[in-house]
User: What shape does this take?
Amino acid sequence: MTGEEIVSLIRDAVDVAVAEKSSPVQAKDKKLLHGKKELARALSVSVSTVSRWLAGPSATLTSPAVIRAGKVLLFDYDLVLEQLKDCEELRWNKRKSAS
Assistant: This one.
């Protein structure tokens, strides 16, 4: 295999990877929620609960589930659910209330 063929294969692989990342189909599949109020409504919790999940160095909700652009907050709903499911503090609260 020549150097040109290797370079061509690498370029093709990069083009495919870029096309997959910027695919409009992926963007349509994501459910993005705008703001704390919309997320709170979707999860049936209060806005102050969402604020608490975002606050401090040990925040429950972090990037990539939370997209911050200045004062605008966007939430990837599926990633938020994953992060909440994995949260030890929330599991502890459930166990405590079940006793």
Summary: Residues 31-98 form a domain with the Arc Repressor Mutant, subunit A fold (CATH 1.10.10). Confidence is low (pLDDT under 50) at residues 23-27. The CA atoms of residues 65 and 82 lie 9 Å apart.
